[in-house]
Each structure stands twice: as C-alpha cells, then as structure tokens.
Design brief:
52% of the residues lie in helices and 13% in strands. It has 297 residues and is α/β, with parallel strands linked by helices. Strands 3-2-1-4-5-6 form a six-stranded parallel β-sheet, sandwiched between helices. The protein binds nicotinamide-adenine-dinucleotide.
C-alpha cells in the first residue's frame, strides 16, 4: 500500500485526499483548519501535527495550498518538507501558483535529491469530488511516470506539459483564454440586447459559427441557451470571479517576467479587478456580464 502525506485539505485538497484513500493509499493529512482535517480523518486518514510530519516516511507528498508564498513556505528552508522527507520522495504540488515560485521550489527539490512535479488542476470542486480533474504537469519524465498512478486516482485527463513550471504555465495560459473569452461573449450578448437580437438566436448562430467557444457553449453568461450554466442560478459559483482574477494576475506576472505582450489579458485582469472590487468576488465569473451590460460607452 502506497503511503501519502497530504498538506492543504481544503475545498479541493479534501476530496482529492479522500480519493487517494478510496484508491487504497494510506494518507496522513495536515492543514491549519481542524474542520478540513476532520473531514479527512472521518474518511480514514491520519492527522499529523505539522507539514514536516506529513512528509516523513511516505512515498508521496501532495500539496494543495492557496498561493505561491504558502508553497515556498511549506517546501523550502530548515522547517520545510524538503528538509524532512527521505531521499527520493515524490512531491506533487497541485496548487495554482506563479511560475517563478513553482520553478524555485522544483529547483530546491532537485537539489535535495527529490522527485517533483507541478500539477495544477482544472475541473473545480465537482471534478475533485468525482476524481475527474485535468492535471497539467511540469517536471522530469521520471517524476511524471512515478506520479501518474496517483494522479489517475484523483483525475481523468493527465497531460505532461514539459519541464518544471510548465504545468503552471499551461494553467495560466488556458485561464487567460477563458477570462478573455468570457468577456468577449458577454460583450457580444450585451451588444445583441441593445441591437434587438434575441439571446437564443445569437447562441444558435454563434455556437455553429466562428464565435464558438467554451464560454459560449458550456458556460453561456445569459440564462436559457445552456440550462446548466451559472447564469440560470443567478450566477452562483461555479468558478468564482476571485479565482478568475487570481489566475489572470498570475498570467500578467508571468507575462511581465517573460517579457510577453498580453494587452487583452491585461485588460481582462483590469475588468475582473473592477468586478471583484465592487463586491462580486464570490459570484461566478460569468456574472461579469452584468457589469458589462451596465457600463456606459
Ligand atoms: P481552500 O482555501 O479551500 O484550501 C486551501 C487549504 O490550505 C485550506 O484548508 C488552508 O487551511 C490550507 N492551508 C493554508 N496554508 C497552510 C499551511 N501553511 N499549512 C497547512 N495548510 C495550509 O482552497 P481550494 O479551493 O482548495 O484551492 C486550493 C488551490 O487549488 C488554490 O491554489 C486554487 O487556486 C486551486 N484551484 C481551486 C479550484 C476551485 O475550484 N476551488 C479549481 C482549480 C484550482
């Protein structure tokens, strides 16, 4: 039986850890939240008192933390998990974080003689619960091969995107497309309303034409055409505007660091900043159509 240390068992990490238990791994968990830990110990996990304890004597350590500073804090330095684990331990960081932090931690892991991948996910809490997440993986071939069975216990689609940090790069590039396309689709519906063009008619035409995209056909920001989209339940998330803003900011950080021009990505980040600042952070990100509709030209 494989042994796993899981650090960060919140909305995403909790169900992921429970899926590893279901697949037959012995799982030790650590989190700052007692309630998050209890939801895992109730399912058969063992609670430990520190991140270092979670990393000692296990085959694999999985981390699912809020942001880059948490990941650096947990991994690096004398009190970090890299200093506590046995040589050759496999580390899987599934948090969504900045590419620079992911590469810094991967370099630390290599120096310490560990295997490591960055493996951010898409699919949300529903995907974490159903073990249907998509994993975007960056790291050496040997680490990817060793991680694959564990990722398969938590997800459905697993893509090796290249070397360290490339999982994070794939995640933020994809989500930059998503943020931009949601704004584009919302602007199109808001314009159609002012031109007297029916939502369903625009959907029927655009979903079969060159405007077709996921934001239109799966996550349509107006109620009606796609009955399962959050627009039909008053924009209850789903994927919150706060999370979209986080990913768009990560894309901007990466673009600055790499010297890439992303003017529409920057504009999308600015619009989501305005939307969340107005108190809509917990609303589904497709709710931005309301702000777009009300904006004065
Ligand atoms: P969450 O806040 O529910 O969980 C994070 C957990 O980390 C919390 O339980 C928190 O107590 C714990 N934590 C924070 N600092 C810690 C520390 N130093 N030691 C131990 N535990 C610590 O967040 P989440 O929704 O589970 O998201 C986790 C990551 O997954 C984020 O990077 C997020 O961007 C990414 N993500 C989330 C979703 C989603 O739909 N929720 C989708 C894709 C990716």
């Amino acid at each position: 039986m494989a042994s796993v240390g899981f650090i960060g068992v919140g909305n995403m990490g909790g169900p992921m850890a429970r899926n590893l238990l279901k697949a037959g791994s012995a799982v030790k968990v650590f989190d700052l939240s007692a309630a998050a830990v209890k939801a895992c110990t109730d399912a058969g996990a063992t609670a430990v008192g520190s991140a270092q304890d979670a990393a000692k004597g296990v085959d694999v350590v999985v981390t699912m933390l809020p942001a880059g500073q948490h990941v650096r804090g947990i991994y690096l330095g004398e009190t970090g998990v890299l200093a506590a684990a046995g040589k050759g331990t496999l580390f899987i960081d599934s948090s969504t974080i900045d590419v620079d932090s992911a590469r810094a931690v991967a370099a630390g892991a290599e120096k310490a003689g560990m295997l490591m991948i960055d493996a951010p996910v898409s699919g949300g809490v529903g995907g974490a619960e159903a073990a249907t997440l998509t994993f975007m993986v960056g790291g050496p071939d040997a680490a990817f091969a060793k991680a694959k069975p564990f990722l398969e216990a938590m997800g459905k689609t697993i893509v090796h995107a290249g070397g360290p940090g490339n999982g994070q790069a794939a995640k933020i590039c994809n989500n930059m497309v998503l943020g931009i396309s949601m704004i584009a689709v919302s602007e199109a519906f808001a314009l159609a309303e002012k031109l007297g063009l029916d939502h369903q008619k625009l959907f029927d035409i655009s979903s079969k034409s060159s405007g077709q995209c996921w934001s239109l056909t799966t996550y349509c920001p107006v109620p009606g055409p796609v009955p399962t989209s959050p627009a039909n339940r008053d924009y209850k998330a789903g994927f919150t505007a706060d999370m979209m803003l986080k990913d768009l900011k990560l894309a901007q950080e990466a673009a600055n660091s790499a010297g890439a021009a992303t003017p529409i990505g920057a504009q999308a980040a600015a619009l989501y900043e305005a939307y969340t600042t107005a108190g809509n952070g917990p609303v589904d990100f497709s709710g931005i159509i309301k702000m777009i509709r009300e904006a004065k030209r």
